[in-house]
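Researcher: I'm preparing a figure for a lab meeting and need a structural model of a single chain. I don't have an experimental structure, so a prediction will have to do for now. The sequence is pasted below. Please return the structure as C-alpha cells so I can convert it later.
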Amino acid sequence: MRRIYPFILVVLLLVITIGTVISQEKQGPRITIEEPNFDFGFAPEGTFMAHEYVIKNTGDEPLEIKRVRTTCGCTSAPIKKMHLEPGEETTITIIFNSTRYFHKTSKAAIISTNDPTRPSEKITFIANMDTVKPRAITPKPRKIDLGNVNDFHRVDSVKIQNLSENDVTIQIVDYYEVFLEEPWIVGAKTPIIEGTSEGTDEPQYSAISIPVGGTATIKVSVRDDISPEEIIRASFTVSAMDKGGNELTRITVPVFGGGE
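Model: Understood. Here is the structure written out cell by cell.
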C-alpha cells in the first residue's frame, strides 16, 4: 500500500500543474489602445478638431466598455461599440472645442472596462492655440468653412507657407475620415511621396518639400455619402519636418460646415 502514495502524489502534482497552466492561458478581456496620445499641434481658437483612437480587445473573453468620461466639458468622446469580442476593435473619437483657449492645453478621456488588469485606461491629446509663438509653417486660412446647406461646397483648400529659415517637408499625418476623404497636396515643385487621391488632373502628393518662404496647397474633400444637411466637425493635421526627418512642428486645420 505504501507504494501507492508516491503515485498519488505524482497525480496530484500533475493536476495542480495542468490547472495552473490552464489558468495562466486564460487571459480574460484585455484592452489595448493603439497610440493613446495625440498631438494636434498649433490650432485656431473657437473651432472643433477631431481624432480617432483605435481600441482593441486582445484578450480571450468579451471586453465590455462600461463608460467613457472626459476630463473637461470642452471635449466629447463618442465611441462606436461598447462590446468587443476577442480580436475585435472599435474607435473612440476625441472632439475638442477650442473656444476660449489661447494657450497650450492637454485633455483626456477615461475609459472604464471589465479588463481585470487595467479597469481604467486613458487617452490624451495636446493642442496649442497660442498665436504668438513662432512656428515653422502656417496655414492660410487657418480653418476651412464649407458653408451651410444653401451654399455648401465639398472641396476647399489651404495654403501652407514655410516660415522657417530652411526648406521643410510637410506631410499629412491625420484626418477625420468620418467626414473627409484623404487630403492631398498640390502646387509645389518637389514631390516626396506620390499620392493616390483620384478625381482631379492635378499632381497629388501626400508629402512635399517647401523652400524657404514658399507655399504648398492642401486640398480637402468631403465624403460623397455626407449630406450638406449634416453638421460637419472635422479636421486634418500636418507635420513639418527638417531634412533629417525630425519634426519641427505640426498644425491642425479645422473643417466645418453643413446644416441649416
